Structure formats: structure tokens, C-alpha cells
Amino acid sequence: MILVENFKLLENNLLNFLDSYLKSSGAKGFVLGLSGGLDSAVVATLCTKVAPTKALIMPTSSSNKANLNDALELSSKLNLDYQIIDISDILASFLPFSDTNDKLRVGNIAARIRMILLYDHSSLLNALVIGTTNKSEKMLGYGTIYGDMACALNPLANIYKSDLFEFASYLGVNHKIIAKAPSADLWQNQSDESDIGYSYKEIDKLLKAIENGEDLSKFDSDFKNKITARITKNSFKQKLPATPNI
After folding, report:
1. With a threshold of 0.70, does the pTM exceed it?
2. Is the dihedral of CA 46, 30, 38, 155 positive or negative?
């Protein structure tokens, strides 16, 4: 368990990071996608303490209605300037050119549509697009490149998912949001942990051991191999596009 004093230090560091980057950029505020989930709730809570923040709530026809309600409740609590943009029709216009039976491909298109809208509002408002991908997702590559992983800056990039639950509670995020199963809500009844096959608590123990260079023999070999294979397979998502040395 992390001490409250450490949460206060973490909060101050993140607020200083956001404030410093915003001032150096010349932008007027922040814009983020608000899903009703834990990560975006933490980021929205932090951003509103620093500068004007616009939240885009972008559901599809398959989105969980509870997530929409939680996003609206959070917006009201934080006095967030928000806009609901149902992207169902935009998504439907892409589907004739994709495989509608492949949920992952459709989910990736939805994530990229959301990022297009965020960057359009970034231009409109002179605001920075804030990322909401946590360290666990980043290491696993569990996200859509040029979709939800695209941003100007990301305050959660070095915080593991399992550590965010207590931090969110410290920040006063509604317990309903903290308690719900983590989900990118890319399709009906989608669950992050079901997709990956393990809980974030289990995953983060391994990820922290890898980061700290610890002996990994204490972990179940099947679990270890699946997670490390995922890290290797998705490592390209953390790299800049390759360019020739001319």
C-alpha cells in the first residue's frame, strides 16, 4: 500500500508536470477523451486543477451506458466543459471497407476516430491532447497506435494500473468508477483483463519485476511467456517511425 503522503507527492509532481508543459507549449488548456473509466477519470481530475479542460465523450452504439452515466457524473462533479459525440455513424461509414466480424479491427477504427476528433478540438481550442494510457498498458502494448495511444503528453505513462486504484481513491474519484472492471469499451461486454487473460494485479507484479531486473523464475512459466511475448510483439507501438540514415 502506498502512503497518503506519497500520493500527495505524486499528485504535486503530476500537477507541476502538466502546468510546466502547458506553459511551455503556449496552449490554453487540455482536451481529453472521457470514457467513464478509471484512467480518464484520474487524468480529468488532475487536468481540471491546472487549466481549462474540455472532455469529449464519444460512445458507439455498443458502448456500455453505465460508462456514459459515470462520465457525465464526473463531468458534473469536476465542472468539466464536455461534449457528447456519438461516433456510431462515423464508425458505420468505415465498416464497408473493413471486416465487421473482426472486433479488434472495428475497435481500432473506433479508437482512431476518437483521436481524430480530439486533435480536431485541439486545433479548435488551442488545447493539448492528454493521454490516458497507464504504464501497464504501455508496456503490454495494450492500446491502439495512433488511436488512444496518441497524445501530446501523458501523466499516467509511468504509473502502473494496479497503483492507480488507490491513487484514484485519494483523488476522490467515485467508487463506482474505481470498482468497475477495466475496459476500453471497444465492443459490448469487452474487458481488458479477459482479453489479456490475467488480472492487472498479477500482470503488474511481473512487469515490475522485469523493470527492476529481478529473477523471473518465481513466476509461472506459461504466464511469464505469454506476457513477455505480448511485450515483444507490441514493442513497435512505443517507437517512432523508422527513418533511413541519409
Report:
1. yes
2. negative
Using CA atoms, how far apart are residues 168 and 145, in angstroms rounded to an integer?
26
CB 33 within 8 A of CB 58: yes
Instruction: Return the SS3 of 69.
Output: helix
Residue type, 230: R
Label residues 90-121 b or e (16+ Cβ within 10 Å = b).
Answer: bbeeeeeeeeeeeeeebbbbbbbbbbebbeeb
pLDDT in tens, 80-135: 999 999 999 999 999 888 877 888 899 999 999 999 999 999 999 999 999 999 99
Q: How far apart are CA 109 and CA 116, in angstroms?
A: 11
Percentages (nearest 5) of helix, strand, coil residues in the chain: 55, 10, 35
